[in-house]
Amino acid sequence: MKTVKDLNFQNKRALVRVDFNVPFDKQFKITDDTRIRSALPTIQKILDDGGSVVLMSHLGRPLKKLKEDGSVDKEKFSLKHVVKHLSELSGKEIKFADDCISEESFKMSSGLKAGEILLLENTRFYKEEEKGDESFAEKLSKHGEVYVNDAFGSAHRAHASTTVVAKYFSPENKCFGLLMAAEIENADKLLHKSEKPFTAILGGAKVSDKILIIENLLNIADNIIIGGGMSYTFIKAQGGNIGKSLVEEDKTDLANDILKRAKEKGVQILFPKDSVIADRFDNNANTQLADSKDIPQEWMGLDIGHEAIAAYEAVIKNSKTILWNGPMGVFEMEKFKNGTKSIAVAVAHATQDGAFSLIGGGDSVAAVNQFQLADKVSFVSTGGGALLEFFEGKTLPGIAAITE
Ligand code: AMP
């Protein structure tokens, strides 16, 4: 795999696709800068070589979230809100072009001197970005002599700046950034070189989002631990009473089919034996413990219970490889975070005892960060959808564009 380490950027201008799609509060203060921090080593390597850097990224979905008058909200979705923070983190002045393909932006990129950084405005202000438009991609390519893709979080999209742009660079002038390389290496290790027992922990709201990954995991995992809202579709499919818990009625047949195939393949699928149930979806709700198959009609399961935690901990403790995607309950609410926290602690302990653990997906990453366990697991992925698609066994277009 070719990375920035294999190239010398002296007097070269690198066009680097980063993922600066960070969350902001109402005052445009960045609430989680992980993605920006993760891009710094690649930027630094290019600058240390004596090169210059043109950064491009998307931010949010500006063309889908229009203002009331139907216009694009160029203030809300501007990458200019990242400039100050990036400058503080990198210790460098950051130039900013308020359009990614304007004449002015090309003047700025072609005028960059060694050691300088230019950030282009949100690529998604152009509809051509998500369409993977060739002429737009070709214009973007003029910003640099070398193309570096460091945006793993967007690698599953065949967009202009993540994929199509790469074809306007010769094979020797395109490579992966360090973040992207680490993401691919770790995900690949898990998928192809994992030590057994391999345990996958899947949670979150919907079964439908996780069907393909479960199907692929049936081929490699020994245990699949299920938690979160998605458990109840399986439990209902098996004839349980789940009250008002989250359910996808149209997925119960599929759930039964997955269980049947797991049995055939000798994969153990674990469901929460008990649940913390609530009389409404609220942190101030009344709560109690219940058998997950016997939830009273007006109640809903919002976290895994003590017995489930103990059973899951035992399996995690004995695992050599652990993949975790999706919370075990509504961890955003104090009353329903115990299951997710206990699993995070169990994964951290197993890692300490020598297991390889990879955590991916926005909510599970938010959870390990919230519980300050991010440095106690082997790898925290910045990819949500991209990581899921990787584990579904798909070829990610952003990766193929560099390697093929
Ligand atoms: P996902 O995006 O599918 O990974 O789902 C993450 C979301 O699922 C989080 O916001 C959780 O609050 C939510 N969630 C987890 N468990 C439950 C549950 N038992 N009932 C409802 N929502 C849940």
Briefly characterize the structure.
The chain has 404 residues and is an alpha/beta fold. 35% of the residues lie in helices and 17% in strands.
Quickly give the CATH architecture of the largest domain.
3-Layer(aba) Sandwich
Shape: elongated
From the 3D structure, determine the CATH topology of the largest domain: Rossmann fold
Strand order of the largest sheet: 3-4-2-1-5-6
CATH class of the largest domain: Alpha Beta
Q: What ligands are attached or bound here?
A: adenosine monophosphate
Described by strand count, sense and barrel closure, the largest sheet is: 6 strands, parallel
Q: Structural class, please?
A: alpha/beta
CATH superfamily descriptor of the largest domain: Phosphoglycerate kinase, N-terminal domain
Please indicate the count of domains.
2
Count the DSSP helices.
14
Strand % is 15-25%
Number of strands: 17
- Evaluate the radius of gyration: 23 Å
Q: Average pLDDT value?
A: 96
Unreliable sequence segments = none
Distance between termini?
A: 11 Å
Helix-residue proportion:
25-40%
How does this structure look, described?
With 404 residues, this protein is of the alpha/beta class. It has helices at 34-49, 80-90, 103-110, 127-131, 134-141, 178-192, 211-217, 231-237, 252-265, 306-317, 338-352, 362-370, 385-391, 397-403, and strands at residues 13-17, 52-56, 94-97, 117-120, 146-149, 174-176, 198-202, 223-226, 241-242, 268-270, 274-278, 287-291, 294-295, 300-304, 321-325, 356-360, 379-380. The longest helix is centred in the N-terminal third of the chain and has 16 residues, at 34-49. The mean pLDDT is 96. The structure holds adenosine monophosphate. The site of adenosine monophosphate has 16 residues, from β14.
